[in-house]
Amino acid sequence: MSERGSIIYLEGVTVDYDGFKALNSLNFIVNFNELRVVIGPNGAGKTTLLDVICGKVKPAAGRVIFGKDTDLIGKREDDIVKLGIGRKFQAPSIYANLTVWENLDLSLKRPSKGVFHTLLSQSTREEQARIHEALATISLEGFSRTRAGSLSHGQKQWLEIGMVILQDPSLLLVDEPVAGMTDKETEQTGILLQSLAARHAIIVIEHDMEFVRQIARIVTVLHEGTVICEGTVEKVQGDARVREIYLGRQKVHA
Ligand SMILES: Nc1ncnc2c1ncn2[C@@H]1O[C@H](COP(=O)(O)OP(=O)(O)OP(=O)(O)O)[C@@H](O)[C@H]1O
């Protein structure tokens, strides 16, 4: 896949729920190695946007192109994962009774033979090296033998991010990564996402504007299923329409 141009391209995408347009002729482009933050008030269509990209929701109209020319419309969710799109949901979906290492081992991109077969088989040196690298990336080097269920909330989120990146996605979708985190964990998550952006394109949905300011280069503002503003944090915060939409709901400025 070319490392130039767009990694994901949505054109005229409409998602219709019995006449209600959760996405309304949406145009949205993210380039390779971009870290894009999507904000917008409740119900703006942010989650629906990610649902369309990962194949969970089928649009009534529009095109969704991954990489140079792979049309995602009509593809199954697991096929989209295999193409290189990984999603980190808001609630961590880790195996609480397995160790951090075992969780990472299970998520390595390899033909799935089931949990028990994978745990009983020896990982190769290369696989072990990749797990060590992931442990360092997510700052859990000292926790490889710790039961995942006993990690802190923030550490669980990082573990799941580690599990998604071990599948080596070209595009990583992240839904509200810092909800419920301490300030320190939030800051560390920002550093983690920025470091990941060197190797993966990332789309982050976020409500926490302080966090958005920490990580964002370009912010897309969604409202009623369409993009109403896009640009730097400063541009978005100074935009009259954005201010009006957020007025009385939540502050765009901390
Ligand atoms: N399965 C569904 N059936 C009907 N309406 C839906 C469905 N899923 C989402 N919607 C509606 O579509 C709109 C967009 O929802 P979406 O979850 O994408 O918004 P959001 O921007 O992620 O909001 P939030 O910040 O609250 O998570 C909302 O009004 C929601 O109620």
Automatic annotation (TrEMBL):
Pfam families associated with the record: ABC_tran, BCA_ABC_TP_C
GO CC term, one of those recorded: plasma membrane
Keyword Nuclease: no
InterPro entries: ABC_AA/LPS_Transport, ABC_transporter-like_ATP-bd, ABC_transptr_urea_ATP-bd_UrtD, BCA_ABC_TP_C, P-loop_NTPase
Database matches in Gene3D superfamilies: P-loop containing nucleotide triphosphate hydrolases (3.40.50.300)
Domain (ABC transporter) ranges: 8-249
Tagged with keyword ATP-binding: yes
Listed GO MF terms: ATP binding; ATP hydrolysis activity
NCBIfam families named in the record: urea_trans_UrtD (TIGR03411)
Name by which UniProt lists this protein: Urea ABC transporter ATP-binding protein
Organism for this UniProt entry: Nitrospira japonica
Source species taxonomy: Bacteria, Pseudomonadati, Nitrospirota, Nitrospiria, Nitrospirales
